[in-house]
Amino acid sequence: MNKVSGPMAGNDLADFTGIPRHVSAEGCQFVALGARPVVGQVLLVLLDSTLPVAGRVRWVVEDRFALVFDAPLARSVRKTLENHGRVLGAVKLVRG
């Protein structure tokens, strides 16, 4: 197993956990908890009640990153992601 130091940015061994903020049909900002992805990385957002949401990391600044979705989110999925961030906190993101 590889040892990772620092914030584990782009760690190939890590999945990611983030709190969704500023959700729109086209994308979402996340506050990273622990490891952070790298720009260009493809991720899947795992939500309990919907299919995974695929997207690509557009930018990373300190503990925040933006994910641009591959396809616009339906209103119901946006609401699920928004509510998840407010009520349950973080969501899991995995490499896509």
TrEMBL record:
Residues 16-83 form the PilZ domain. This is PilZ domain-containing protein. It comes from the Bacteria. Pfam families: PilZ. It comes from Novosphingobium colocasiae. GO terms for molecular function: cyclic-di-GMP binding. InterPro entries: PilZ_domain.
